[in-house]
Amino acid sequence: MDREQPCEQDLGVLVGDKLDMSWHCALTAQEANHTLGCIKSSMASRSREGILPLCSALVRPHLESCVQLWSPQHRKDMDLFERVQRRATKMVRGLEHLCYGERLRESRLFSLEKRRLHGDCTVAFQCIKGAYRKDRERPFTKTCTNKTRSNGFKMKEGRFRLAIRKKLFTMRVVRHCNRLPREVVDPPLLEMCKVRLDGALSNLT
User: What is the predicted pLDDT for the residue at 179?
Assistant: First the structure.
């Protein structure tokens, strides 16, 4: 990435002059790959039981910490992140000759893109179900509807003048949540929503 690109750092996140997160994504992927390299050089075992828990504990936090605030907005940034997990799953003995999709299935993992979608929907459900009651302003507004094709838990889509705003968390998550089946969003308990969301994403190609 061009180092001359103007950007500002706010609470540890680098934001470009066009409100994109490409520079921050590049640095984050670099840190994750460095950690992955340390795991590879220090681990004699390549077993699934050894590699995957370490990657989950040490590598994935780089890619997912507060990701709702700086989620990759461009396909090149998404692919940059996905290459980190591709490399991690390829380190596991017995999976190295499989394609990436098969390695994910064998490891019972989601792609990072699906994990971000899971995280976005979970945070949105927390907001809707009142997990942040102290907040004076709610980021989402629920709209109940009885339409047959609706999941009965619709959120209002906000309006915006600038196209860049559609990439923000409070905008992008509404469309995804409104498309989820009724059984995913109906349970009153968040943990049950998470389990059913896992199932819905598993069937998502």
Answer: 77
CA–CA separation, 202 vs 205, rounded Å? 8
The CA-to-CA distance between both ends of the chain, in Å, stands at 31
Indicate the helix (H) or strand (E) that contains 134: none
Distance CA 128, CA 139 (A): 9
Residue 20: the pLDDT is 77
**Which H/E stretch holds residue 70?**
helix 67-70
CB 184 within 8 A of CB 151: yes
Phi-psi label, residue 87: left if phi above 0, alpha if psi -120 to 50, beta otherwise: alpha
Helix 75-90 and helix 112-128, axial crossing angle in degrees, nearest 10: 110
Single pTM value for the model: 0.73
Question: What is the C-alpha to C-alpha distance for residues 87 and 65, in angstroms, rounded to an integer?
Answer: 20
Token representation of residue 121: 């929907």
Axis crossing angle, helix 100-107 with helix 75-90, rounded to the nearest 10: 60
The position carrying tokens 């680098």 is: 14
